[in-house]
């Protein structure tokens, strides 16, 4: 009877999307998300998100993972140990409800996994990987009859593709599974999971799929605030009932785990969120929880939010500060900025207080992403500090600060840049060392960031770094020397942007196709999201090569820190980005690579921003539509060396004599709001 009450509750809370009387959102959250896509079009076919918050498996596999049939209704388990694997086809997450009838007594076990590698009667690892297996949960039945079972809220499974059902019985009991329904828990304030506020489309279908896999990953990472991983971790099984922060929805690092706010991850996840799904409310809540748990005496931010609440990371401290800049840039939420400005100033005082007489940051909060060497004058944290100072300078203006912090922080940034190039540059190799020591390690993270954050002091250095980064490449991605044997799509997200930033378009696209293309086409993965990391031998044992205690199934196959191509393809290939809060000013600087056309768009509080380009036999056309009253910089590439092109804007010729910037390999134009077409021949 209790099970029937549960089903009735679900039927009233989770209405079908085509209902004309109510919106459907997760449990008791407010349906505050968008109801329609901002840019409807054929590209919506690439969205992995389902059309309803209630979904069923698409196919049935054997216990060994072999395809049996499509999921059409009744499936049978017969005898002790019998089992079937139900494939949802994509990453999903939430609470499963089973309807079944039996001929005797026993239990049905439910086990979950993201990767096909781990399907079986034990779920893949999500509880911390150190104390015991996740195992399975069970629906018991005492005699023959008809039953329904809904997973308890505590056992919500945040991320999985495969559901294994297996029978435990002493006799010859048969179970007929008559229905399987999953109520999706992520993106809890959205009634329509396909209501993307951004889009991307190009002539390369692989790149399109990669862009949307990053976007869908970010949806699975926007979770109800009362569904964090329980800390301390349970001894066996799993528990997702931890409080993560304020509001109804919050962005976390992964769907399956850790299900906590990690500001370093947000350095990649937030820009990609902005250009795709547009869920800045979840971003705001994630940042606010970091301010709420700031050390009021020292100014230090936690490395991770509650309930994990991990401390002791200088780099993640700075990523909270950079994340604040990104959020204000995309939202123009000056109320949030003013409410937290005093805490931001304390955070800057804390981190800059660690700059020593050499002019370099001396790292004492040693925790970082998975890299295995940290501390002292590490080049990576110094690159991040440079970015922190520059973004802080902009924030001081946006906050209306009158104490000249903009000048002070710019001056400190320039001094830091000089020190980094003096002490960390290795001229014999042509890249930055891992530290201001005699080390021979030239890391992927610091060198990628040095270009992207403009720390390099000459263009020749940037080109050398870009070339030397290729030495880390394998057929399936770039190995990070600072985490030997491992490929990190998180750090590679910075690398692809670095290549784009200096016009090495072919290199950036090559790395996207190698790494993200390899995973999206891997039949052992989710084929819908982006993975936390993997080994250079092509297995999903990320970090296991460094002697970590957890098993390989602990790897997250839906991790927002790996979504870099989603923002990069919009901001570099289409070339559209905002340069002041909510896009009051913007930039349009397309790169073509080997593509024939590309287009993208996103929303801000000012309205729609959209751009597209098409290559022609005699040049290219570039169309953009941005809110009136905004202004921007347009960067046009010359397709022929030494030949000045013919340029028209809305059919009117652009005079070279009247525009002194019309010279060199790129052409700079001042852009204005509205809808315009530029043709370059």
From TrEMBL:
The UniProt record lists the keyword RNA-binding: no
Alphabetic keyword roster: Hydrolase, Signal
Domain Alpha-L-rhamnosidase C-terminal: 575-636
Pfam families: Bac_rhamnosid6H (PF17389), Bac_rhamnosid_C (PF17390)
Keyword Aminoacyl-tRNA synthetase among UniProt keywords: no
MF terms in GO: hydrolase activity
Family annotation (InterPro entries): 6-hairpin_glycosidase_sf (IPR008928), 6hp_glycosidase-like_sf (IPR012341), Bac_rhamnosid6H (IPR035396), Bac_rhamnosid_C (IPR035398)
Organism: Hyaloscypha bicolor E
BP GO terms, sorted: carbohydrate metabolic process
Domain Alpha-L-rhamnosidase six-hairpin glycosidase: 249-472
Signal sequence region: 1-22
Source species taxonomy: Eukaryota, Fungi, Dikarya, Ascomycota, Pezizomycotina
Entries under SUPFAM superfamilies matching the protein: Six-hairpin glycosidases (SSF48208)
Protein name: Glycoside hydrolase family 78 protein
């Amino acid at each position: 009877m209790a099970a029937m009450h549960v089903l009735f509750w679900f039927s009233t809370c989770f209405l079908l999307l085509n209902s004309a009387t109510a919106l459907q959102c997760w449990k008791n959250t407010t349906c505050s998300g968008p109801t329609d896509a901002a840019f409807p079009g054929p590209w919506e076919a690439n969205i992995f998100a389902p059309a309803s918050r209630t979904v069923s498996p698409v196919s049935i596999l054997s216990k060994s993972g072999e395809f049996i049939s499509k999921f059409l209704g009744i499936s049978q388990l017969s005898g002790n140990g019998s089992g079937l694997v139900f494939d949802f086809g994509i990453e999903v997450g939430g609470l499963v409800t089973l309807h079944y009838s039996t001929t005797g007594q026993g239990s049905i076990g439910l086990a979950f996994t993201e990767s096909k590698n781990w399907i079986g009667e034990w779920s893949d690892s999500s509880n911390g990987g150190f104390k015991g297996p996740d195992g399975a949960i069970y629906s018991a039945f005492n005699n023959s009859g008809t039953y329904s079972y809904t997973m308890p809220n505590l056992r919500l499974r945040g991320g999985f593709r495969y559901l294994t059902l297996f029978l435990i019985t002493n006799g010859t009991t048969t179970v007929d599974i008559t229905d399987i329904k999953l109520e999706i828990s992520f993106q809890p304030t959205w009634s329509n999971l396909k209501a993307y506020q951004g889009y991307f489309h190009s002539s390369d279908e692989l790149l399109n799929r990669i862009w949307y896999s990053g976007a869908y990953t970010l949806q699975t990472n926007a979770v109800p605030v009362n569904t964090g991983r329980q800390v301390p971790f349970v001894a066996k099984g799993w528990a997702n009932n931890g409080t993560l922060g304020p509001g109804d929805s919050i962005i976390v690092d992964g769907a399956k785990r850790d299900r906590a706010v990690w500001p370093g991850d947000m350095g990649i996840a937030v820009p990609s969120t902005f250009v795709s799904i547009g869920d800045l409310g979840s971003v705001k809540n994630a940042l606010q929880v970091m301010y709420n748990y700031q050390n009021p005496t020292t100014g230090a931010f936690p490395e991770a939010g509650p309930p994990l609440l991990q401390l002791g990371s200088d780099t993640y401290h700075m990523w909270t500060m950079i994340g604040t800049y990104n959020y204000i840039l995309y939202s123009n939420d000056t109320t949030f900025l003013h409410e937290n400005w005093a805490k931001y100033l304390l955070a800057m005082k804390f981190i800059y207080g660690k700059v020593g007489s050499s002019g370099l940051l001396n790292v004492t909060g040693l925790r970082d992403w998975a890299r295995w060497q940290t501390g002292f004058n590490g080049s990576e944290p110094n690159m991040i500090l440079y970015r922190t100072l520059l973004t802080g300078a902009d924030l001081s203006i946006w906050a209306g600060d009158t104490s000249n912090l903009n000048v002070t922080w710019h001056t400190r940034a320039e001094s830091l840049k000089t020190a980094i190039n003096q002490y960390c540059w290795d001229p014999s190799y042509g890249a930055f060392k891992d530290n201001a020591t005699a080390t021979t390690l030239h890391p992927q993270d610091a060198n990628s960031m040095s270009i992207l954050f403009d720390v390099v002091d000459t263009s020749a250095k940037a080109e050398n770094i870009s070339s030397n980064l290729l030495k880390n490449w394998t057929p399936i991605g770039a190995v990070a020397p600072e985490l030997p044997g491992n490929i990190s799509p998180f750090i590679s997200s910075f690398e692809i942007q670095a290549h784009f930033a200096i016009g090495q378009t072919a290199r950036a696209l090559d790395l996207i196709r190698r790494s993200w293309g390899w995973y999206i086409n891997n039949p052992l993965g989710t084929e819908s999201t982006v993975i936390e990391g993997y080994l250079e031998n092509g297995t999903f044992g990320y970090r296991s090569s460094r002697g970590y205690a957890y098993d390989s199934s602990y790897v997250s196959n839906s991790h927002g820190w790996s979504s870099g191509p989603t923002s990069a393809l919009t901001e570099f290939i289409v070339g559209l980005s905002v340069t002041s809060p909510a896009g009051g000013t913007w930039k349009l600087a397309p790169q073509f690579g080997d593509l024939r056309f590309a287009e993208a768009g996103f929303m801000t509080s000012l309205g729609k921003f959209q751009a597209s380009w098409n290559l022609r036999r005699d040049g290219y056309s570039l169309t953009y539509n941005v809110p009136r009253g905004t202004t921007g910089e347009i960067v046009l590439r010359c397709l022929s060396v030494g030949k000045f092109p013919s340029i028209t804007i809305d059919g009117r010729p652009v005079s070279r004599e009247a525009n002194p910037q019309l010279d060199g390999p790129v052409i700079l134009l001042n852009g204005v709001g509205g809808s315009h077409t530029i043709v370059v021949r």
